[in-house]
Amino acid sequence: MIKVVTVCGNGIGSSLLLKLKIEEIAKEEGIEVDAESIDAGSAQGKKADLFVTTKELANIFSDDQRVAIIRSYTNKKKIKEDVLPTLKELDEEK
Predict the structure, then answer these.
(1) Can you tell me the distance from the alpha carbon of 6 to that of 61, in angstroms, rounded to the nearest whole number?
(2) Does the N-terminal or the C-terminal CB of the chain have fewer CB atoms within 10 Å?
(3) Distance (Å, rounded) from C-alpha 41 to C-alpha 4?
Protein backbone atom coordinates (compact mmCIF):
# COMPACT_ATOMS: atom_id res chain seq x y z
CA MET A 1 0.00 0.00 0.00
CA ILE A 2 1.27 3.44 -0.94
CA LYS A 3 1.16 6.12 1.75
CA VAL A 4 0.10 9.41 0.12
CA VAL A 5 -0.09 12.76 1.92
CA THR A 6 -1.89 15.65 0.23
CA VAL A 7 -0.73 19.07 1.34
CA CYS A 8 -2.26 22.55 1.23
CA GLY A 9 -1.81 25.70 3.28
CA ASN A 10 -4.31 24.90 6.04
CA GLY A 11 -4.86 21.15 5.58
CA ILE A 12 -8.64 21.46 5.54
CA GLY A 13 -10.35 22.14 2.22
CA SER A 14 -8.07 21.88 -0.77
CA SER A 15 -5.95 18.98 0.45
CA LEU A 16 -9.08 17.06 1.48
CA LEU A 17 -10.58 17.44 -2.01
CA LEU A 18 -7.25 16.37 -3.49
CA LYS A 19 -7.11 13.34 -1.19
CA LEU A 20 -10.56 12.22 -2.39
CA LYS A 21 -9.58 12.66 -6.05
CA ILE A 22 -6.38 10.67 -5.59
CA GLU A 23 -8.27 7.87 -3.83
CA GLU A 24 -10.72 7.79 -6.78
CA ILE A 25 -7.94 7.69 -9.37
CA ALA A 26 -6.02 5.00 -7.50
CA LYS A 27 -9.12 2.84 -7.14
CA GLU A 28 -9.87 3.15 -10.86
CA GLU A 29 -6.30 2.07 -11.62
CA GLY A 30 -6.25 -0.80 -9.10
CA ILE A 31 -3.59 0.84 -6.94
CA GLU A 32 -3.94 0.61 -3.16
CA VAL A 33 -3.31 3.90 -1.37
CA ASP A 34 -3.60 5.12 2.18
CA ALA A 35 -4.19 8.85 1.71
CA GLU A 36 -4.20 11.63 4.28
CA SER A 37 -4.68 15.38 3.96
CA ILE A 38 -2.58 17.73 6.05
CA ASP A 39 -1.40 21.34 6.34
CA ALA A 40 1.99 22.47 5.06
CA GLY A 41 3.44 23.04 8.54
CA SER A 42 2.65 19.51 9.73
CA ALA A 43 3.75 17.87 6.48
CA GLN A 44 7.44 18.47 7.06
CA GLY A 45 7.70 15.87 9.82
CA LYS A 46 5.46 13.31 8.14
CA LYS A 47 6.59 10.00 6.67
CA ALA A 48 5.03 9.05 3.34
CA ASP A 49 5.82 7.40 0.03
CA LEU A 50 4.47 10.41 -1.82
CA PHE A 51 3.57 14.00 -0.99
CA VAL A 52 1.20 15.75 -3.40
CA THR A 53 1.02 19.54 -3.45
CA THR A 54 1.28 22.65 -5.59
CA LYS A 55 4.47 24.17 -6.95
CA GLU A 56 4.25 26.94 -4.33
CA LEU A 57 4.47 24.47 -1.44
CA ALA A 58 6.82 21.88 -2.97
CA ASN A 59 9.94 23.63 -1.66
CA ILE A 60 9.12 22.72 1.96
CA PHE A 61 10.15 19.10 1.28
CA SER A 62 13.67 17.73 1.32
CA ASP A 63 15.34 16.19 -1.70
CA ASP A 64 14.89 12.66 -0.34
CA GLN A 65 11.08 13.02 -0.17
CA ARG A 66 9.12 12.12 -3.28
CA VAL A 67 6.81 14.97 -4.30
CA ALA A 68 4.25 15.15 -7.08
CA ILE A 69 3.39 18.69 -8.10
CA ILE A 70 -0.20 19.26 -9.18
CA ARG A 71 -1.71 22.08 -11.23
CA SER A 72 -5.15 21.84 -9.60
CA TYR A 73 -6.60 20.65 -6.31
CA THR A 74 -9.97 19.82 -7.91
CA ASN A 75 -9.61 19.05 -11.63
CA LYS A 76 -9.49 15.26 -11.76
CA LYS A 77 -8.07 15.12 -15.29
CA LYS A 78 -5.13 17.37 -14.38
CA ILE A 79 -4.55 15.57 -11.08
CA LYS A 80 -4.50 12.24 -12.89
CA GLU A 81 -1.98 13.55 -15.42
CA ASP A 82 0.22 14.94 -12.64
CA VAL A 83 0.06 12.08 -10.13
CA LEU A 84 -0.73 8.79 -11.89
CA PRO A 85 2.73 8.19 -13.39
CA THR A 86 4.29 8.46 -9.93
CA LEU A 87 1.60 6.26 -8.36
CA LYS A 88 2.23 3.59 -11.02
CA GLU A 89 5.97 3.81 -10.42
CA LEU A 90 5.52 3.43 -6.65
CA ASP A 91 3.08 0.56 -7.16
CA GLU A 92 5.68 -1.30 -9.23
CA GLU A 93 8.29 -0.76 -6.51
CA LYS A 94 6.05 -2.25 -3.78
Answers:
(1) 13
(2) C
(3) 16
